Amino acid sequence: MGESPTTSASARPTPADPSDGHPDRWRILAVLCAALCIVVLDNTILAVAVPRVGHDLHADETALQWITTAYSLVLAALLLPLAGLGDRFGRKGLLLVGVVLFGAASAGAAFAASSGQLIVARGLMGVGGAGTMPATLAVLGNVFAQHERARAIAIWSGMSALAGAAGPVVGGILLDRFWWGSVFLVNVPVTAGVFVAALLLVPTSKDPATPAVDVPGSLIWTGALGLLLFAVIEGPGRGWVSATVVGAVALGVGLLTLFAWWERRTSHPLLSPAAVADPRMQAGMVAVPAVFFSVFGAQFVLSQWLQGVERLSPLQSGACFVPNAAAVLVGSLLSTRVVARIGLGKATVTGLLVLASAVGFGAAFHGSLAPVIAAIVVVGLGVGLACPPGVEMIMGSVPPEQAGQAAGVNETIVEAGGAFGIAVMGSVLAAAAGGVAAISPGKLGGPAAAAARDHFTHSLAPPLLTAMVILLLAAAVVWRRTQGTDAAEPVGGTKR
Questions:
Q1: Which residue range(s) make up the domain with 246?
Q2: Which pLDDT belongs to residue 10?
Q3: pLDDT for the residue 474
Q4: What is the CATH number of the domain that holds 356?
């Protein structure tokens, strides 16, 4: 199986033959998926609550973008360093601490009295999520043998995508009965159950040989992400050529350049340079964020359109995403067969093209509800097809003892992609509408509501077309980077 030398079971002894995997591996997978689902769900459950939060907390479009992206920003900043800590000091401990912090911060978010308080609480939830998410995939890679790992990752990835797709549905159900804080408070009992189950079932594993955490690299990476997100979110309101926005872009790009330089020279980088040089890793690092850029961004703008323009309730808005959740599951189950026939690279490209066609269709026929729902369904199918092979290319490019680092890379790019999707597509929407004020909740419900709603609808095409272009470019890169590698060949399982 390739377990780390220090792996030990907390509940049952490991099997005599490590190639069989941990004896409780399928129950452990259920616990890991539950932990993952609550963290992923929180990325999208807020989507249907955005109009209600904006109204109750008097938050404009810029504040709503910060409320939505604060969580993803902190996740993307801390996933890699915390994944390294888990590998070095214990993945189970990281999982347990992350779950507790996530639950406590969720309770704080539920009772926030201002947009500022909610942004802070969302950031603290991101800290907890940053400990939970990479630990789930690292433990998975540790308890499953190679011949079962692809199937386990497909289930893990499918549950992750399903949770993301189900977020608006769950949020709609809660908002139909309770106040907006319920979308956060629901996490508390779930985290308590996950904590107990993980304490009893999940084995302890670590790799003491893991290098020390790259603190300078982590700080540089965090600064770069924060500055670039600031520029994208604040651009429509402050002006794209304002000194503040231009300065933030310049500093962000400068820090990214410094980050690349530092990672090549430090003795303990956030990810091994050898892994980054692997074409499979490069392909996965392009495909996965492109998928979540499109998914998170589309959910952010479409949820506002469904409630603000189509006048659907939060529950009705969430129900529009039910077929999407089913399509994600179908696509994830099909992905293993597709990979076996055409290989990881081509399977990922297929999913990206399906996803691109869906958002392109939505951009072309966004004037009425039925075409938009059809596009949402096909988006789910594309996500299910693209994510499992994309994740496997990342995980398959490193040895098992670096599973935590690879898991951190995977979740970092998911969150970074999602955060930039919300920021970029939200800002493109605001720019197309003529400014942040033009699509505010007050404008859509004011005296000139009919004209404002019509204007909002016509402004939907640019952000959706932006997502389509990103997906097509990602498909081209994945195709190019996987040619001549084992990711281009049909397989019956994973190759390492």
A1: 214-267
A2: 36
A3: 93
A4: 1.20.1250.20
